[in-house]
Amino acid sequence: MSHPPHLAHGWNDAPMAPDWPPLRADEAAAVLVRFPSLSSPLQLRWHSPRPFSAAARVACAQGEVFLKRHHVRVRSAAQLAEEHAFIAHLRAHGLPVPRVLTDAGGHSAIALGEWTYEVHALAAGLDLYRDAPSWTPPLSAAHARSAGRMLARLHLAARDYAAPARSTALLVTGDAVLRASDPLAAIAQSCAQRPDLAAALATRDWAQELAPLLPALGALQPRLAALPTCWTHGDWHVSNLLWDGPGARAGVAAILDFGLCAPTFALLDLATAIERNAIAWLQPDPATRAVFPEIACALLAGYAELLPLSMADVALVADLLPLAHLDFALSELEYFHAVLRQPAMAAVAWRDFLLGHFAWFAQPQAQALLQAIRGAG
Prior knowledge:
single chain, alpha+beta, Aminoglycoside 3'-phosphotransferase, Chain: A, domain 2, 5-stranded antiparallel beta sheet, two-stranded antiparallel sheet
């Protein structure tokens, strides 16, 4: 019996070969043997189509677990433990996040050769968006409203989490450039600390190409300077949530995937949620790309049920939207250039993601979306 090749979510709604080889049964066994509470794996039941790592649901005699593998250049054990510490804090504050399992030595991040592994208990709830790529809209405004409410719960629980900044900038949500009074100087400073980013930018006239973004960044900076830092999810899309029922009125039952979490600020996380859920980025033609203002407004309304938003807050979310992706896009450029060594994908990350997303907000439908958001304040 043959099995179809494992594919991952790609750009422009086209499945593509995964960044990393799928998990194997013998590999899963070598990891799970370290966990006294688990037996040898019986079956790998589902491979995740998400990029940046390899993951699968693994059946053991005690039930299923979620096994995820990272290349050590993307996440070391120490860097992965930073995510686990935030998850543990949220669980302690009553947030519905899956339990991260620990091995016989009490470690939640397992380093084996060139790979780093983590094992999660399955979260409760229905995975209604299991096959939905990020940047696809929710099935209903009610789903978006529940997602906004849960995001506010997360931000409330994160207020007293005081861990230091992430020890990596690779594939995490950041705000160093976004908040900088001199964004180009901030990028140059990042290049001095991140030689792989410097190499990715070396063949580009990056300062000149980023010039169109500078006025919008300059208008944002005074308003961002005083905003308090808090740890944020960084990738708030409905595919990273589980649901308490199958219908359009279902509510969020669990929160998944903290791989991009980092200390930024709450309104950036909210703007990122709108960017991920309310714009059809996978439609390739910018002129006809759909927007979903009702989804954006529902996210805002759900969030405001627990954390009220002033008119200035809502206006800031709208102004953040064209730039919310900036720091992450730089890290994605670095990933494709230096880790995967895929110059074509690095070009996509730079041209279509970093520069293209900002430029698209000049389109009429993008301006209409921003106006709808401002009108929700």
